[in-house]
Amino acid sequence: MGKANNVPNHLGNVEHADRVYCVLLWSTVTHPTLYDLIWDEHVVDAERDGTCLLYVDRHIVHEVDSPQAFNGLRRAGLRVRAPEKTLLVVDHNVPTSRRAEPNPDPESAAQIAYFAENAKLFGLEYYDELDRRQGICHVVGPEQGFTLPGTMIVCGDSHTSTHGAFGALAYGIGTSEVEHVLATQTLIQTKSKNMRAVVDGKLPPNVTAKDMILTIIGEIGAAGATGYALEFAGEAIRALSMEGRMTVCNMSVEAGARTSIIAPDEKTYEFLKDRPKAPKGEAWQEALRYWETLRSDEAAQFDREVRLNASDLPPLVTWGT
Question: CB–CB of 85/185 below 8 Å?
């Protein structure tokens, strides 16, 4: 597509004038939330009904939701659009121990073998079951510095929202969407409404990040965040470790949220600094300058807001699963 002259560079390429108008509409929020900011930066195209084409910065792929996607690429004779922005991690079918021995589940072994075959065929970086970097895909991204603030990250797993702990816009996607991202490096989405959960004060002894998110879910209901992008804020959220923030964002999908996010801060930067795939040198300094702008405007209006006092939160358990 040809680039329209009046579209800001960060919005990408747009072909038709009526779509230019729609794209620019997404950038006219006077007091944007953090979700608004990152969304606007990734809009490539938009229709008048609100359907948008978003650019994807990072695609993490596991072996369960990808066989049909790779098969679709093969049948169509397509290549992976951005191999350098795609990371394959064997995840769901890997035994916890004795990995050097044959996989005891034939179906799992076949799925892993096809995954490895596709990694080689399409020239993609792949962490197999014996790679020391292998792990849960939502953890591998942050460990490697593949997850960065302000990026849009997708993976074929509902708990991809975990990456929101680093100030990223992260979506769990389906198999057909995995194929679409592999082929085009874009994702079709409709913008969500904004919700904020603010937890102020200090957590009591023996109360953890999991208790915090379970209390929030109990407050708004198991479907209370359906149709929303959920931002977590407040003193108690900022006091959490990065691992605690990952727990909160991971479980936001249990309240129906499409995605969740926490503004990056010094803890985020300290966690990511010197990670293998994180920016280095001047690129790191440039990234920091951008990351420090990733905040909801003080006057931002949220469609729904819930506030809790951390000192009132009890320790909780779940059961029945």
Answer: yes
Angstrom distance (rounded) from CA 167 to CA 149: 4
Q: Is the pTM of this model over 0.70?
A: yes
pLDDT digits (tens, 9 = 90+) for 66-80: 999 999 999 999 999
Is there a contact between 179 and 68 (Cβ–Cβ < 8 Å)?
A: yes
Beta strand 228-233 with 193-200 is parallel
Number of residues that this document lists for the chain: 321
- Tens-digit pLDDT profile for residues 237-295: 999 999 999 999 999 999 999 999 999 999 999 999 999 999 999 999 999 999 999 99
What does the CA dihedral 116, 157, 151, 199 come to, rounded to 10 degrees? -150
Q: How many CA atoms lie within 13 A of 72 on its CB side?
A: 15
Residue reference for tokens 């985020």: 268
Write down the H helix ranges in the chain. 17-25, 34-42, 67-76, 106-122, 137-144, 175-184, 209-220, 235-239, 242-250, 266-272, 282-291
